[in-house]
Write a structure and sequence with these properties.
single chain, 1 helix, ten-stranded antiparallel barrel, 178 residues
Length: 178
């Protein structure tokens, strides 16, 4: 068989500037779409009446959790919580981490605390594991509802007598509707 004969193929020429502009737009747009689509990002306020804490575990008077994109623009989350206890004392916790399961430093208003490792089994679930060495001290499973308006955090840990304790915090989105 010989070469195909017929009209010359159509050549499409795209100026270099348009190509670069399209690439730049894509690089900017993709992270923005991902950010807008992360169901965890935003401010969450604990619904104390719906939350369940066992006897002996202090139920906060108020708690606010804010999750957003890391300040350096990397993958993952920047987490900050503010708690006011029934006795009026307050605490703050803050960290930046990705979802690779690697433990990162957690900073509180009292200094450093147990490092946290995050994993994300699906878009609406994050599992936070707090460990010291190889000993897991607590695991928190955060789940955002399908409509994006509520979040439940179920934390399992051991109390001072090494008895298993489960707390369930119910949160409502405070900053925006999805």
């Amino acid at each position: 068989m010989g070469p195909i004969k017929g009209p010359n193929p159509v050549k499409i020429q795209v100026p270099m500037r348009k190509s670069l502009a399209a690439l730049l737009l894509l690089l900017i747009a993709v992270p923005c779409v991902q950010a807008a689509g992360d169901p965890f990002w935003g401010t969450w306020v604990m619904d104390v009446k719906k939350s369940k804490y066992p006897p002996g575990v202090p139920l906060p008077k108020a708690m606010r959790v804010t999750m957003e994109a890391p300040p350096d623009g990397s993958e993952g989350v920047h987490y900050k919580s503010e708690i006011e206890y029934q006795d009026g004392k307050k605490s703050e916790t803050e960290y930046t981490n990705d979802y690779t399961g690697v433990a990162r430093v957690v900073v509180t208003n009292r200094g450093f605390t147990t490092p946290v490792a995050l994993e994300r089994p699906d878009l609406n679930t994050v599992v936070a594991t707090y460990a010291r060495g190889k000993d897991v001290l607590a695991t928190s499973r955060r789940v955002v509802s399908k409509d994006g308006r509520t979040m439940t955090i179920t934390t399992t840990s051991n109390d001072k007598s090494n008895k298993r304790v489960v707390t369930i915090g119910h949160y409502v989105r405070a900053d925006r509707k999805p």
